[in-house]
Design a protein that fits this description.
Chain lengths: 220, 220
DNA sequence: CTTATAGAGTGAACGGTGTTCACAACTATA
DNA sequence: TATAGTTGTGAACACCGTTCACTCTATAAG
């Protein structure tokens, strides 16, 4: 009597094989060079069949972007949070973001710089695991503020935004090969992060007021 | 007897009209949505005709990228260099770069983040006016180092790279709409730049050793 | 003034793209 | 066994960048 269930399982298996094929192709060649026909070839279905699993090519890459965010969060959490000093704990996720841009350039491009897949993040609801990570990092920053590592009255969310910006810049420049030929992008990323971090600790009038992602836990 | 000259002028006029049409289209709709056929339509030529003026679509956008760099350098030089204090003079070109990303987003995308036009900068030789600007800015930074605004032994080219990175990050995040809906990208860019600048002045061990763009003037 | 020539511009085509749709084929239910 | 419903397909549409054989025209030569 598990007929419906089996059918559903089969459907899901095909959907997954589409995503797998798409991922393989796009990790190897980039979004631009993945076509529906190539995916169809690889899974031995007709191109049209894919459209009964995903409404458009973009939706396949929305799914892959979500996969990318999971990968990112995973690798950012690989190391422990607490047993090291606060500054190191703060550096870690941002360096991790930069490293992600090098180890998974195509994912990074899809998630952060590609404009051909417009509005890759439609439903931030589906990305609550990203918001969770953001909150966790902000809490560490908050702890650092309390510990006097940053000036009091510093907004932890602003720190998050600024350090992200500091690390995304070099990442994108490297990804898009906009650096001078011999430049060491890794060192640049490290230094830009370190400069921003040092500057934040030294203190200056911060004007950036991030739109707090509405905290589900009341108060705090 | 000026027949050859007239013909050459006419050729150049058509080439220019192709670039104009391409620019209009791509400023309005982005590189992705500009097709040879649309350009051809607009200038009332057949698509094939364009290929006797530019060897490929990419070459049209190489030309537009160069135009973009000229625009950028222009706007970065609009204000005077000297009569203000050194810190302001240092901030200016980087804020200018960020502002450029807002006022000319499609140019900025083409010049810095678009990967669909691979290796947009083939001949850095043709972009010596960019190198000139870079050198001029580095010299101001050098002056600031001499004036004790930065720690001694600071590499002005590293400062240039770091401040660029600090400003490109927010620019790209805004361009690719990867910021949270309510976030003020302008403030983020200002603050990231200011954080990096403050950090550089406070001093930390810089590891980034930029590949000096070979200075034509011997010594110095 | 006529003819030959070089060059610009064209239409049609090639192989590619994302997407749609009528239809065939198979499966599960009654 | 007949019926309903789902799944996959082939063909097509409207695009894309690019190429090529061709025409036509304006110039130069005779």
């Amino acid at each position: 009597m598990g007929v419906k269930e089996r059918q559903e399982r089969e459907r899901e298996a095909v959907a997954r094989s589409i995503l797998d094929a798409a991922r393989d192709l796009f990790v190897a060649e980039g979004y631009q060079h993945v076509s529906i026909r190539k995916i169809a070839d690889r899974i031995e279905y007709s191109p049209a069949a894919i459209y009964s699993y995903f409404p458009s090519k973009d939706d396949i890459f929305f799914a892959l972007a979500e996969e990318g965010f999971r990968l990112l969060v995973e690798s950012a959490q690989a190391a422990p949070d607490d047993d090291t000093d606060l500054l190191t704990a703060i550096r870690r996720p941002f360096l991790s973001l930069y490293r992600f841009s090098r180890t998974h350039p195509e994912y990074f491009a899809l998630m952060f710089v590609d404009r051909s897949v417009p509005r890759i993040i439609r439903d931030w609801e589906r990305f609550d695991f990203v918001r969770d990570m953001k909150l966790r990092i902000s809490q560490i920053i908050q702890k650092a503020i309390a510990a006097g590592i940053f000036p009091p009255e510093t907004d932890p969310h602003a720190v998050f935004g600024i350090l992200s910006g500091a690390v995304v810049g070099p990442g994108v420049m490297q990804l898009c090969s906009r650096l001078a030929p011999g430049d060491d992008a890794d060192a640049l990323a490290r230094d830009t992060l370190e400069a921003a971090l040092t500057g934040l600790r030294a203190g200056f009038p911060i004007t950036f007021r991030p739109s707090q992602c509405e905290d589900t836990s009341a108060g705090q």
